[in-house]
Specification:
The structure is a homodimer. Helix content of chain A is about 30%, strand content about 30%. In chain A, the strands form two sheets. The first copy, chain A, has a four-stranded antiparallel beta sheet. Chain A has a four-stranded antiparallel beta sheet with strand order 5-4-3-6. The radius of gyration of chain A is 16 Å and the shape is globular. Chains A and B meet through helix 1, strand 7 and strand 8 of A and helix 1, strand 7 and strand 8 of B.
């Protein structure tokens, strides 16, 4: 089965993100707005409890932390993806590193750029239009993160939560 | 914020349910296939941690249990909703009752008929067509449940998981 690890930001951020995703993100209906902590990886169902145990350990050793969003950014020209840039606190970087140092299969192939996608798979023209008009808006959030989620993917591409891990609690 | 409590069945059941929901359930994109344990209720964000504590207690006192699906059924004529009938084990009934005996606001207004919706908001004609043709198919599942989820609703009507509760663990 295909699993992934993500953080759901507050309802406020999710509602703002969805107001754009609805129009500009074909993954809108597949998963709530999120910060990906670990890209999708394959794991046997029989082994997922080992992963859960490891994630509990990582969560227990990580304290809740805050992050800020101050602006939008884009992965263009690599992909036409527009996102809320999550200012990388040291804790978030450490959490990402810890998750990639476990026995969980597959190291992430990209550099870790914490973000919340609000638009993707745009044509070049759409991308410059949307990015241009969104840059006139203000995106300012600051919030505390105290959990992350292990999810699995269904055949239709959508994601279901398997388990929640509270930081500092295990 | 609006919260709800649900069980996600296995990926196998979710995939089968989604293959019908895709066409026949306007809530398809809002939440994965699920068994509702407690209908949506309003709770202040500041008080949700009290609810979490209560749910942890209930989870700890409830052992994992099995359930079976043997056939489809419908809520017609009350609503044109077609569902996989979850054969109500005593444990599932008890869990539902325990969740309604907590301080969590709002007792459920309907009798507890555990089910996984696969079609809803059909016209009368659609309902009899779809129900007629689906009844020729076999729906046979048996599986073990070891967790439930507390979710909250976003402005677009979709649901995000807030926390997972493992049965027998708290």
């Amino acid at each position: 089965m295909k699993y992934g690890i993500a953080i759901f930001p507050s309802k406020d951020i999710q509602d703002v993100a969805n107001s754009y995703r609805m129009r500009y993100d074909p993954h809108y209906a597949l998963i709530p707005p999120h910060i990906t902590l670990k890209e999708a990886f394959e794991e046997d169902d029989e082994d997922i409890e080992k992963v859960v145990k490891e994630l509990s350990e990582v969560a227990k050793e990580t304290n809740p932390f805050s992050f800020a969003i101050r602006k939008l950014s884009t992965f263009s020209p690599v992909t036409n993806t527009i996102y809320m840039k999550v200012e990388a606190s040291e804790e978030l970087q450490n959490l990402h590193e810890r998750l990639n140092r476990t026995d969980i299969p597959k190291e992430d192939t990209f550099n870790f750029v914490p973000h919340i996608t609000i638009a993707q798979k745009l044509s070049d023209d759409e991308h410059s239009d949307v990015y241009g008009s969104l840059q006139m808006k203000s995106f300012e959030f600051e919030e505390r993160i105290d959990r992350f989620q292990l999810l699995y993917q269904l055949d239709n591409g959508s994601w279901t939560v398997y388990e929640t891990f509270r930081l500092g609690k295990g």
